[in-house]
């Protein structure tokens, strides 16, 4: 349970999370379960072990639907399955992404298309799928996870950086499109969150020290920092926030 926040309006809410069985996504799934929400998530890899862990820990299991989100038809079928199980989706969290490092010269058109099929395209088509149900509910919240990587102008993965910048633009367009139906759309931009994947693959002592030097707050981010911010954007506590880009990064970049 979060040390800091409890949002009573999330109890019983139908929540759908992409990539909700590992890393930040797993923390998000657990965070919503702890608020009493009914959570469904998709993950390309098998997340049965995580589901069992949640059942043992909280007495309730999230609905896991194995799905490759680059397959739009499969993603939208998973959204329909979740709505059938839990009721119309009122909170959509587009979390899944692939931040694989790549060079400019070696990247192919197929690589580009594959990256966008994971990092950007699902955000649009999942919103398309949930919008009618949210309208019927009288509103809802769509939260698109981007990254401060594009605001920093990071090198080493230009396709990923481009997709994360595009998410902010998509959010603004969707917020205008869906606002008349009471549907809020916001972007959450995490800084460098030290998941196990980051620690295993890219976090070096020098890299960690250099990044911490750029932060105003001299403490590395952990998944729970993103969970608490996401819960706020999901809740009616943020009812008049839409079309916004909210940064949680310890003070590396600024907005406004």
From TrEMBL:
Keywords recorded for this protein, A-Z: Oxidoreductase
Pfam families recorded: adh_short_C2 (PF13561)
GO MF assignments: oxidoreductase activity
CDD domains: SDR_c (cd05233)
Alphabetized InterPro entries for the sequence: KR_dom, NAD(P)-bd_dom_sf, Sc_DH/Rdtase_CS, SDR_fam
SUPFAM superfamilies attached to this UniProt entry: NAD(P)-binding Rossmann-fold domains
Chain ranges of the Ketoreductase domain: 13-205
SMART domains xref list: PKS_KR (SM00822)
Family: Belongs to the short-chain dehydrogenases/reductases (SDR) family.
Cited PANTHER family: OXIDOREDUCTASE, SHORT-CHAIN DEHYDROGENASE/REDUCTASE FAMILY (AFU_ORTHOLOGUE AFUA_5G02870), SHORT-CHAIN DEHYDROGENASE_REDUCTASE FAMILY PROTEIN
The protein's name: 3-oxoacyl-ACP reductase
Native species: Marinobacterium aestuarii
């Amino acid at each position: 349970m979060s040390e800091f926040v409890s949002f009573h309006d999330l109890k019983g809410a139908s929540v759908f999370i992409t990539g909700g069985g590992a890393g930040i996504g797993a923390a998000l799934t657990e965070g919503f379960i702890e608020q009493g929400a009914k959570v469904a998530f998709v993950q390309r890899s098998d997340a049965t072990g995580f589901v069992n862990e949640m059942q043992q820990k909280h007495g309730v299991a999230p609905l896991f639907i194995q799905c490759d989100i680059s397959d739009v038809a499969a993603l939208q079928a998973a959204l329909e399955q979740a709505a059938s199980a839990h009721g119309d989706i009122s909170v959509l969290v587009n979390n899944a992404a692939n931040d694989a490092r790549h060079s400019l010269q070696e990247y192919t058109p197929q690589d580009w298309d594959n990256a966008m099929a994971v990092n950007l395209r699902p955000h649009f088509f999942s919103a398309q799928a949930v919008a009618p149900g949210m309208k019927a509910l009288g509103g809802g919240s769509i939260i698109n996870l981007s990254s401060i990587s594009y605001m920093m102008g990071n090198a080493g993965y230009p396709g990923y950086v481009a997709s994360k910048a595009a998410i902010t633009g998509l959010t603004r367009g969707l917020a205008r499109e869906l606002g008349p139906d009471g549907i809020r759309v916001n972007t959450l931009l995490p800084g460098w969150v030290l998941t196990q994947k980051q620690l295993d693959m890219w976090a070096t002592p020098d890299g960690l020290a250099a990044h911490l030097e750029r932060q105003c707050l001299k403490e590395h981010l952990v998944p729970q920092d993103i969970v608490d911010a996401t819960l706020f954007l999901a809740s009616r506590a943020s009812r008049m926030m839409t079309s916004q880009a909210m940064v949680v990064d310890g003070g590396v970049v600024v907005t406004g």
